[in-house]
Amino acid sequence: MLACAVLLAGCKDDARSVVPGGDVRLGLRLVTQYQCGACHVIPGVQGADGKSDDAGPSLEYIGRLSYIAGGIPNQPANMVQWLRVPHAVKPGTEMPPMGLTEQEARHMAAFLYTLR
Fold first, then answer.
1. How buried is residue 90: exposed, middle or buried, by Cβ count under 10 Å (0-12/13-18/19+)?
2. How far apart are CA 16 and CA 5, in angstroms?
3. CA distance 31 to 41
4. Predicted TM-score (pTM) above 0.90
5. Cα 83 to chain center, whole Å?
6. What residues form DSSP beta bridges with 41?
7. Phi and psi dihedrals of 55, rounded to 5?
8. Do 51 and 41 touch, CB atoms closer than 8 A?
9. Is 80:109 a contact under the CB 8 Å cutoff?
10. What does the pLDDT profile of the chain (116 residues) look like in tens digits?
């Protein structure tokens, strides 16, 4: 019985484990602070309705998509890089550089991976 409990505890879905060093709660705060919802629909972020003229894609299911920005494999390292320097990852993208630090991008990616 104890062995089963230990095994089941290891199956817990902990979004922070998806992005090493990322914290989901801090990521949510940063997504709000950097006003990502001005361009994107983001569940759980007040006012994130993506209704601006520069609207980007909905991030409602970004955590389960195979690709970021239509062709970048959706893996934590790629997500962090995309958030930090989108033009280096996909030249010509409309996603603006936000001046994120590596750690801020890790936190934001950890939050984004909870959107499934």
1. middle
2. 21
3. 11
4. no
5. 8
6. 49
7. -55, 130
8. no
9. yes
10. 434 443 444 444 444 358 999 999 999 999 999 999 989 999 989 888 877 767 789 999 999 999 999 899 999 999 999 999 999 999 999 999 999 999 999 999 999 999 99
